[in-house]
């Protein structure tokens, strides 16, 4: 019976085994098809979300930072990972109070109003009025040490430092910015004690108006609402510090949430002498160097300007070197002022 059935089946209908060349050809075609499919999916994913690769890199950076600061058992969401990429461990910070000159009064007040209640919480446990402020604003001309003070505060207080860039909270997809804003606070609470520092805070929380985009307005409202949540928890050790050159542009509701404010003005002559001594502390300078004479000629100079003056010096530093650097900086500042004035006139 079996023989009769096999005789009726045509030879071409029987599946024969593939030879070596056919197997290799099939493998090659499958591999090529898989590669084309993979790169097509990659291209489509990049077209849909151009920031996908940056987010992946940020997540790797965040995981590395979390391991370095010894935080491994805390579960973080995808959005918290994006914010954690901007985390700075206070133990790795090199900035201390000794690296800031000419701001002794501000530093003393910061120690009394911010750091003392943090480091001695038991002394103020029964008082709600003497708790550390949840918001601190540093304002004044650019280059006068606002960012340095924020970092030194985190270092001295032992707080983890989240250097938040406003661009971090922007996303093309609707609703994502609100999730990122919420992640800032949830991450800070998980990692407390912590400081959320927002440089140029006026670019993010400027006065609201009817011309604001809907997504931006919602994000600002949510950010300030979450900020209010910090005040309700007395034991919460999260502080938001902001720095700005334009406090007049800030939203009044935001200013109310920053009750502690410090004005960082341009240094006077005595402060400039202290800054010059700090800048040149470890340099080879002539013993006859007159810091007072140089300080008197630097009207309108910030601490950053003074530091920039001496970056190209060749040791030993002499009085004529300082004088030459001073004239060069004056020309640079004058040129910058003229360019700014031209833009203002054109506008």
Automatic annotation (TrEMBL):
InterPro entries on file: AAA+_ATPase (IPR003593), ATPase_AAA_core (IPR003959), Mito_OM_Translocase_MSP1 (IPR051701), P-loop_NTPase (IPR027417)
Molecular-function GO term, any one: ATP binding
Reactions mediated catalytically: [protein]-with a C-terminal TM segment(out) + ATP + H2O = [protein]-with a C-terminal TM segment(in) + ADP + phosphate + H(+)
Subcellular location: Mitochondrion; Peroxisome membrane; Postsynaptic cell membrane
CDD domains (alphabetical): RecA-like_ATAD1
AAA+ ATPase domain: residues covered: 132-268
A GO term from the CC aspect: peroxisomal membrane
Membrane topology: Single-pass membrane protein
Pfam families, alphabetized: AAA
SUPFAM superfamilies in UniProt: P-loop containing nucleoside triphosphate hydrolases (SSF52540)
GO term, biological process aspect, one: extraction of mislocalized protein from mitochondrial outer membrane
Keywords in alphabetical order: ATP-binding, Coiled coil, Membrane, Mitochondrion, Nucleotide-binding, Postsynaptic cell membrane, Synapse, Transmembrane, Transmembrane helix
Residues in coiled coil: 48-75
Protein role: Outer mitochondrial translocase required to remove mislocalized tail-anchored transmembrane proteins on mitochondria. Specifically recognizes and binds tail-anchored transmembrane proteins: acts as a dislocase that mediates the ATP-dependent extraction of mistargeted tail-anchored transmembrane proteins from the mitochondrion outer membrane. Also plays a critical role in regulating the surface expression of AMPA receptors (AMPAR), thereby regulating synaptic plasticity and learning and memory.
Family affiliation: Belongs to the AAA ATPase family. MSP1 subfamily.
UniProt-recorded name of the protein: Outer mitochondrial transmembrane helix translocase
Source organism (scientific name): Sinocyclocheilus rhinocerous
